[in-house]
Design brief:
Blueprint: E1 2-5, E2 17-21, E3 24-28, H1 38-44, E4 56-58, H2 64-67, H3 70-75, E5 81-84, H4 86-113, H5 127-134, E6 137-140, E7 146-150, E8 153-159, E9 167-175, E10 178-184, E11 204-210, H6 221-238, E12 242-245, H7 251-264, E13 274-276, H8 279-290, H9 297-304, E14 315-317, H10 321-326, E15 335-338, H11 348-355, E16 362-365, H12 374-379, E17 384-387, E18 390-393, E19 397-400, H13 410-420, E20 421-429, H14 433-440, E21 448-449, E22 456-458
Parallel strand pairs: 3-4, 4-5, 5-6, 10-11, 11-20, 12-15, 12-16, 13-14, 13-15, 16-19, 20-21
Antiparallel strand pairs: 1-2, 1-22, 2-3, 7-8, 8-9, 9-10, 17-18
Helix pairs in contact: 4-5, 4-8
């Protein structure tokens, strides 16, 4: 059995791991590298393995940094089966189409600015490639259901509590009469998250796990909701808007779910105007509504009583561009959620241009921001940021509420690892080096490794 590393190794994006066992080649995730311009080259570079020689892709969840290079994989010859949960398959289609759209737009704009080389400027992949990738999705795995892929090779998906449909993938391999269990964590959600159940890892001999927040603890979801409510109240009192740069998947739905509850309880005004300015987030809300099998008991009970998980009087879902631009006229009292979460693209940049210079506005970051992104610069206190080539002064109040993170914190990662075991070997991935090292130092009773990109392990 051989495991090789092709993304998210000593880094947090581009998740991609290749397991060769029982005569099969399984890729676990094929994500996009995200963060800065230089990463464009990393995305278009050779994959590090033969796409056509793969038999299966096991997709843990639909975030771009886990599914974003699937269209490229198919473009480069992959003809095997992609297996995921049903909710992940639906969300991944939305994410891949959106990424293809952005890649096409980006290539067109680069060609306009560089007419002499226009013919040689190609998008990473096209919407047609994303459609071809969607067609490779085959079996839909229910949580804990065991699927036999080949003699001596069984896989199962286990709730990771991270976003709708997210899973850790267990590969059970029998070779030479010896059975071993290899667990790929995917991204692990923290305990007590709205809508979703907590992560439920099965025991395994070899564990490969994420360590995004391996060096710190978050505030709890309840503290974070209270903090968000008080920021909304204070900003309304100052006469400004609240802008929430928000990932379209999971974070937007989770915030809406919390706002609905706060309005229902009277903590926020019944008519609070909330704009979801993201076609992708709106499409994802529809997928969330179609998959109640992924809900926790509280969300299931709300549905059973006839509630809409994401609906309230002041909510406006903004799909078209003209309506999005009209939001620029609103100077106070509104809550505007738009992507992207790291402010590297999407409609949120327009809302930042209008609201960052206003001292009475609030910008609330509710997710992870990589080094080099506008979000990170704003969080780190930059006096101005460049958006669309324009220097925009930062006068608004900047808040970071990290308890909305869809990732488990150090304490929760330790709890997850204790249940998963990993006594033969524990492999840490998907973290920046300081987070990984801090977490590795806590795992004193198992052999731990932190492979570099392109490493190959014989297991
Ligand atoms: Zn994720």
């Amino acid at each position: 059995m051989q495991l090789s590393f092709h993304g998210a190794d000593r880094d947090v994006t581009g998740s991609c791991h290749l397991l060769e066992c029982a005569g099969q080649r399984l890729l676990i995730d094929c994500g996009m590298f995200q963060g800065s311009r230089e990463l464009d080259e990393e995305n278009s570079a050779p994959l590090g393995f033969e796409a056509a020689a793969l038999d299966f892709v096991l997709l843990t969840h639909a975030h771009l940094d886990h599914c974003g290079r699937l269209p490229l994989l198919v473009k480069r010859g992959f003809r095997g089966e992609i297996i995921s949960t049903a909710a992940t398959a639906e969300l991944a289609q939305i994410v891949m189409q959106d990424a293809a759209h952005m890649a096409e737009d980006d290539a067109a704009s680069r060609a306009r600015h560089n007419p002499a080389h226009a013919a040689s400027i190609q998008p990473l992949y096209t919407r047609a490639d994303a459609t071809a990738a969607a067609a490779r999705f085959g079996r839909k795995a229910g949580y804990t259901e065991r699927l036999t892929l080949a003699p001596g090779l069984v896989v199962s998906f286990h709730d990771a509590g991270h976003i709708l449909g997210s899973a850790s993938v267990l590969v059970e391999v029998t070779e030479g009469g010896r059975q071993r269990r290899v667990l790929f964590s995917g991204d692990i959600g923290g305990a007590g998250r709205p809508i979703l159940n907590d992560a439920a890892p099965p025991p395994a001999d070899i564990v490969l796990m994420e360590t995004t927040y391996g060096d710190r603890d978050h505030r709890t979801p309840a503290e974070s909701i209270a903090e968000l409510i008080s920021v909304i109240q204070a900003t309304a009192a100052r006469g400004g808007n609240v802008v929430i740069p928000s990932f379209a998947l999971e974070r937007s739905q989770e915030i809406l779910y919390c706002l609905r509850a706060a309005i229902a309880s009277g903590a926020l005004p019944a008519q609070l105007p909330v704009y979801v300015d993201s076609p992708m987030a709106i499409s994802a809300i529809e997928v969330y509504r179609r998959h109640p099998e992924c809900y926790d008991a509280e969300a299931a009970a709300l549905i059973a009583r006839g509630n809409d998980l994401f609906g309230f009087a002041g909510l406006r879902l903004v799909r078209d561009t003209a309506a999005s631009m009209a939001l620029n006229q609103i100077t106070h009292g509104a809550v505007i959620m738009a992507g992207s979460g790291m402010c590297t693209g999407g409609r949120v940049r327009h809302h930042l241009i209008h609201n960052l210079p206003r001292a009475n506005a609030s910008i609330v970051f509710v997710g992870y921001a990589s080094q080099g992104t506008p979000a990170r610069r704003i969080i780190d206190g930059a006096p101005s940021v460049k958006l669309f080539g324009e220097d925009v002064p930062v006068r608004a109040q900047v808040h970071t509420i990290n308890g909305f993170s869809a990732h488990a914190d150090q304490r929760e990662l330790l709890g997850w690892h204790a249940r998963a075991g990993g006594r033969e070997r524990t492999i840490l991935v998907h973290g920046e080096p300081p987070a990984m090292q801090a977490f590795a130092a806590l795992l004193t009773d198992v052999p731990v490794s932190m492979p570099e990109a392109n490493a190959v392990l014989q297991l």
